């Protein structure tokens, strides 16, 4: 079940984040992620709109959206890989926002393939200054919503 993040979710969310991000990024020093923990906990999570996927009282995945368009995090417990939890979380935010972007490391090929399947396309490539790893900026647009004209608006003069 997907539901909005609540304050008591912070500890299990942070455990999932650290375990999952370390597993997903073996090409980046593990201590980089440990050093980033306080920023995630104190800055990014409070500033984002976050939803969790809960099953039988356990948090098994989450997605965080910053500034109503940037997916800052999407993580799922490894035991649930391939069970459509990530897809459900992505579709949940795609139903709410007409445009989404994210940054993913090029070496994280599993995530790159996943986002591509969800309709994201690469719009930029750069080197992350903190990790020196190549990062891809990917974007998804809900074409129907992006091309919709608000009711009652005049689109020509």
From TrEMBL:
ATP-binding as UniProt keyword: no
Keyword Transferase in annotation: yes
Keyword set, alphabetical order: Acyltransferase, Transferase
CDD domains from the UniProt entry: NAT_SF
UniProt domain N-acetyltransferase: residue ranges: 1-143
GO terms assigned for molecular function: acyltransferase activity, transferring groups other than amino-acyl groups
Name by which UniProt lists this protein: N-acetyltransferase
Organism, as annotated: Pectobacterium polaris
């Amino acid at each position: 079940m997907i539901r909005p993040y609540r304050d008591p979710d912070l500890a299990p969310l942070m455990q999932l984040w650290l375990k999952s991000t370390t597993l997903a990024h073996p090409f980046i020093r593990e201590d980089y992620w440990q050093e980033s923990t306080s920023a995630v906990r104190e800055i990014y999570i409070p500033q984002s709109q976050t939803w969790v996927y809960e099953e039988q009282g356990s948090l098994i995945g989450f997605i965080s959206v910053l500034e109503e368009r940037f997916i800052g995090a999407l993580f799922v417990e490894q035991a649930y890989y391939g069970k459509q939890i990530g897809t459900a979380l992505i579709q949940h935010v795609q139903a709410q926002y007409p445009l989404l972007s994210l940054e993913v490391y090029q070496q994280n090929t599993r995530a790159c393939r996943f986002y591509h399947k969800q309709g994201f396309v690469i719009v930029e490539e750069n080197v992350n200054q903190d990790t020196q790893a190549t990062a891809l900026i990917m974007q998804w647009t809900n074409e129907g919503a992006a091309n919709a004209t608000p009711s009652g608006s005049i689109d020509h003069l």
